[in-house]
Write a sequence for this structure.
């Protein structure tokens, strides 16, 4: 649409009146929108139109009006209103055609205006829809941002928690290393004190016997007035200050020589005990399961091992003076260390038992296995027995310490009673050692039988798996050769699936039957193991035994099951 401009046309009438009319111009401008609103206003009434027409054309200026309209129509491309070129005679047909074309043009412009209005409404609705979608997407973006912030905060908290756990683990490892060093030092001190007490006890016992013999001789002997001369014919030396001083010097020299020999023996004994403790520590650590660590933890462990080695190097210089500690502190440290190592060993053995029970639980009957309650009761009973034995050992050590610390009395009855008690204790210890050796032999025999049964079971299972694979292969080939017919691809696949499903069901049934018959021997052997497993040994000789059979059985079981998984 163009801008509407007023065109002033001067008419040749005598009154010199001016006629104004709206025409369309081709130049477009932003004011066209406001002009369209004016043009789209309702049409004027008939009276106003009549007045407008009367103002344009009158009886006096009809010819001028016609010429003006003809000129305007010709400029707009319409045909002329006159029939001839001179413009003398008006053509009604051409006038009517021009009016019809004007009406058609008016209708066309009205339709275009209506289409533009509908298009404008559509665009407005689309704009509203896009604005709603924009608000929704903006809300979703804000929600996702809030969620990302929450996840970042949660990740930060988890990282802080992970760092704290790493620090706690590092502290625990440091504590374990310190405790192990303390245990080693206390073990050496305890063994040293025990040897020293045994030597003191032997000396006191010899002195006691000497006193008893001397007293008996004095009671039964007679005082001799004149002594018989010496065998070599020499006279005995007179007791003077010089002779007494010389005798004291000889006595001190003898004591110094004895102390030096004793110190050498103690150094040799300490070296042997250190080697023994290191060997015990290595064997116990080898029995315990290795822990899987992350690369960061492994790096921290390497640093910790370097620090622990440095601490051990610095601590070995002070180990020479550790034998000066008191017997009670060393005894407590050694007892705590042995308890800790035995607890770790016990937990490891329990874990191995749980693994074996999990492997065999699927195929064993409920009557053939030991219930968990009975196992827990047995463990509690063994723990009570161990606690009672520890208390008894503590009381005996306290009594022995009191007896050694108390001054020697000249009363014969008390010494005889002590000697009797010690002999009785020695006999009891011999009996306990004998019982312990028997239990150890039984345990070794049962372990050997268990390993043989496990190996036999593995061989039988391997043979059975090979026979089963050959039978399934033969069965599958025979069934496919008998039922092979020219069918479609879908029918062939369904038959093959049915055959495989039947073969797998038969295989599972045969597996269950064979496992129940084969695991009965192992269960009968495994029921006897918890009776002698947690035996508290007072000597380090028990540290030398190992438990390789359970792990070997588990590895062998995995190796046997691997072909079955590949076949399926």
């Amino acid at each position: 649409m163009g801008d509407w401009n007023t065109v002033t046309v001067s008419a040749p009438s005598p009154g010199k009146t001016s006629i104004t009319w709206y025409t369309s111009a081709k130049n477009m401008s932003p004011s066209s929108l406001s002009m369209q609103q004016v043009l789209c206003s309702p049409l004027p009434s008939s009276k106003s139109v009549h007045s407008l027409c009367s103002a344009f054309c009158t009886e006096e200026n009809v010819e001028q009006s016609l010429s003006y309209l003809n000129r305007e129509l010709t400029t707009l491309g319409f045909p002329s209103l006159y029939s001839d070129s001179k413009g003398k005679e008006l053509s009604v047909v051409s006038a009517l055609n021009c009016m019809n074309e004007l009406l058609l043009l008016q209708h066309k412009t009205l339709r275009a205006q209506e289409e533009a209005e509908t298009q404008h409404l559509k665009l407005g609705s689309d704009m509203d829809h896009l604005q709603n979608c924009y608000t929704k997407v903006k809300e979703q973006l804000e929600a996702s941002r809030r969620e990302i912030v929450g996840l970042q905060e949660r990740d930060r908290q988890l990282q802080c928690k992970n760092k704290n756990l790493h620090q706690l683990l590092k502290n625990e490892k440091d504590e374990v290393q310190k405790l192990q060093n303390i245990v080693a030092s206390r073990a050496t001190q305890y063994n040293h004190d025990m040897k020293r007490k045994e030597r003191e006890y032997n000396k006191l016992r010899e002195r006691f016997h000497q006193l008893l013999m001397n007293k008996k001789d004095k009671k039964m002997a007679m005082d001799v007035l004149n002594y018989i001369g010496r065998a070599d014919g020499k006279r005995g030396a007179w007791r003077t200050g010089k002779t007494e001083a010389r005798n004291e010097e000889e006595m001190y020299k003898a004591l110094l020589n004895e102390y030096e020999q004793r110190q050498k023996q103690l150094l040799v004994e300490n070296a042997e005990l250190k080697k023994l403790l290191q060997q015990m520590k290595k064997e116990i650590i080898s029995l315990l399961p290795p822990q899987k660590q992350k690369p960061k933890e492994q790096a921290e462990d390497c640093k910790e091992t370097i620090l622990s080695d440095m601490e051990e190097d610095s601590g070995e210089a002070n180990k020479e003076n550790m034998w000066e500690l008191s017997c009670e502190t060393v005894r407590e440290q050694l007892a705590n260390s042995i308890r800790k190592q035995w607890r770790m060993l016990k937990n490891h053995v329990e874990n191995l038992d749980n693994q074996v029970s999990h492997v065999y639980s699927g195929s064993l009957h409920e009557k053939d296995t030991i219930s968990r309650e009975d196992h827990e009761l047995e463990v509690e009973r063994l723990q009570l027995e161990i606690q009672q034995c520890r208390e008894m050992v503590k009381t005996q050590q306290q009594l022995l310490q009191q007896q050694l610390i108390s001054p020697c009395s000249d009363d014969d009855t008390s010494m005889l009673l002590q000697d009797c008690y010690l002999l009785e204790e020695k006999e009891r210890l011999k009996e306990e050692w004998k019982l312990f050796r028997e239990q150890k032999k039984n345990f070794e025999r049962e372990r050997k039988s268990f390993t043989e049964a496990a190996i036999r079971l593995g061989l039988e299972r391997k043979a059975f798996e090979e026979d089963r694979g050959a039978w399934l292969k033969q069965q599958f080939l025979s069934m496919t050769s008998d039922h092979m017919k020219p069918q479609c691809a879908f029918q062939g696949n369904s038959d093959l699936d049915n055959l495989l499903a039947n073969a797998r069901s038969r295989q599972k049934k045969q597996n269950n039957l064979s496992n129940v018959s084969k695991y009965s021997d192992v269960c009968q052997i495994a029921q006897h193991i918890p009776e002698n497993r947690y035996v508290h040994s007072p000597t380090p000789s028990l540290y030398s035994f190992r438990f390789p059979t359970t792990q070997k059985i588990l590895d062998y079981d995995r190796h046997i099951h691997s072909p079955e998984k590949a076949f399926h």
User: Anything to note?
Assistant: The mean pLDDT is 69. The first strand starts at residue 4 and ends at 10.
